Amino acid sequence: MFFDNIFHKVLLPGTVVMVLLVGGCEPPPQKSQPSAQQSTQQAGIPKAKSGLKAPPTETPYTLAYFEPTLENPEYGTLMVNDHAFLVPEGVPRPSIQSVYLLSHWEIKPGESVLDIGTGSGVQSIFAAEISDHIVATDISVKAVETAKLNVQRFGLQDKIDVRPPGDLFAPIKPGERFDVILFNIDYPSNQYTQFWWEVHERFFAQVRQHLKPNGRIYYQIGDIDNIPRVKAMADKNGLRIMRLRMDERLIFQRAPIVFLLQSEVDVREQLRREEMAYERQIEVDKHRDGQVSAD
Ligand SMILES: C[S@@+](CC[C@H](N)C(=O)[O-])C[C@H]1O[C@@H](n2cnc3c(N)ncnc32)[C@H](O)[C@@H]1O
Questions:
Q1: What burial letters (b/e) apply to 112-146, b meaning 16+ CB within 10 Å?
Q2: Ligand 1 pocket, 161 CB below 6 A?
Q3: 184 ligand 1 Cβ < 6 A
Q4: pTM for the model
Q5: 119 Cβ closer than 6 Å to some ligand 1 atom
């Protein structure tokens, strides 16, 4: 992880660390303001101050990390804007990839969400500002415990159901389907991490069974070299890439890439309806023009 690298290289362990990643003149964040209740629950967590400058996230989100303190030696604190996430050793902190995904998903009120590989719970916790029905899963026992802890600290237990640990869709109940599926797990980034393709292949093979009609998948896989293989997995499994977002300026941070995917069948049906509506409109226009010239 980029953060791990920077912290280990630049900072002395055990000190309070303040890193600000400044998003520049981006529009104000849409999903980043904690409610009054959340802020109160998070009292006592140190606020980030200007310190070591790190590369920008190129999103409306800032990241700031605080090392564990003597009072709370088990957990570091990762701030995403004003949201403080407790993260113990061994659980991935919200990263540039996390906030890039946060910036590119769209969830409408009333939609259900599945967050696979939830880690600290960051995607689910921001999604809960819009959706009341979120399921979070992770294969790691420690990540599940951490996500539960953060969900409780934000008081979101009624909205976010953190399932017992399990691989990909294993924690999902039979027949359970979602409007939106968020996916940001580890991914192949060099010759030693190619084994992650096997997990991503299985995700692509199974994901359609868990999507509601017209459901959407927001899938993060940093590394531009991975794009052709993602396209191949989408084609093989009846999914269409509807949108791809990346930012070359972040290339030195394993540039995050977010895909929006939908079922090919759904997309074709949608196109067919739009075409029919268009043809109906032409008929209406012709009829109206005929009447005008007769008049
Ligand atoms: C890089 S972290 C990302 C966490 C979070 N999604 C985010 O946006 O910050 C990846 C997470 O995926 C989890 N993971 C890895 N393989 C998994 C699998 N096969 N099924 C479910 N979760 C998995 C890891 O345990 C880890 O918590």
A1: bbbbbbbbbbbbbbbbbbbbebbbbbbbbeebbeb
A2: no
A3: yes
A4: 0.82
A5: yes
